[in-house]
Amino acid sequence: MTGEEIPASTIPVVEIVEVAPRDGLQNEKKVLPTEIKAELVRRSLDAGLRRIEVTAFARPDRVPQMADAEALLSEVTSDPRLTSIGLVLNRKGLDRAVAAGCDEITAVVVASDGLALRNQGADTKAQIEAWHTIAADAREAGIKASVIIAAAFGCPFDGEVSTERVLEVAKGVLDAGPDELAIADTIGVGVPAQVRAIVGGIRQLDADIQLRAHFHNTRNTGYANALAAVESGVTVLDASTGGIGGCPFAPGATGNIGTEDLLYLLDRSGVRTSTAIDASQVAATGTWISDQLGLPQAPAMLGRAGWFPAP
């Protein structure tokens, strides 16, 4: 840490959700075998990460990278360290997630109709209605249900997405009583001012909801947005080991913020993580998974630059 000592009671605590096995791999061109994905999950657990978005329950013909969802979960769910999250888009996805033994599900509601229709074949209003059914059925099945508002900072088809629009969607999804509400900068266009406005608006709608944020670093604003989110009261951040996962709407651009780089930022900013995570071990895993994907190097920087000051 740097600077003066901060009283432990005032230090923010943030939970990291590791999303490399899902959002990281889903947007990479190379489809990895199930055993490599399982090894990625195990290495993440060994590094101290505990809550991991393992897979998505999507159509195999649309998302071939996630075609082995059930097989992958069967390889890792017996590990008592793991809290497994499955991404679902509809009721069928929920049924698959429950049958596969997921501890939690995250449902998707897209803030813009343009991306909503192209991604899921239903507009935002219909997705909110579907989420209400998913939330109720997940509760009945005894698993936690989060909802993520995608394209909350901008849409590749509709352009700007206003804060008012995001808050309108947030009100609709909050009515179903999610265990957690997430906001996602799906295409990496957001800036800290938007983060503060959206988080502040959601807090006015529900002061107690657990907030999670998912940022992409497509335009080098992802880490600034993550810190702004923490400073605004967000307590859960998504990140991807190695920074893997491109942006499907911006060819050649980087995708998710890297877990190891985020850990460095949080540590040097006086923010604790909810579990002890070995950033060097995460960085080594980032180098390994990037090699498995055939990337020239991991998009994340810590594996190359190293920690400061050096251990």
Automatic annotation (TrEMBL):
Limits of the Pyruvate carboxyltransferase domain: 14-283
Keyword Metal-binding present in the record's keywords: the answer is yes
The yes or no answer to whether the keyword Ribonucleoprotein is present is no
- Per the UniProt entry, what are the Gene Ontology biological process annotations, in alphabetical order? ketone body biosynthetic process; L-leucine catabolic process
Q: Which UniProt keywords apply?
A: Lyase, Metal-binding
Domain of life, source organism: Bacteria
Q: Which Gene Ontology terms cover its molecular function?
A: hydroxymethylglutaryl-CoA lyase activity; metal ion binding
The entry's family comment says:
Belongs to the HMG-CoA lyase family.
Its name, as the record gives it, is Hydroxymethylglutaryl-CoA lyase
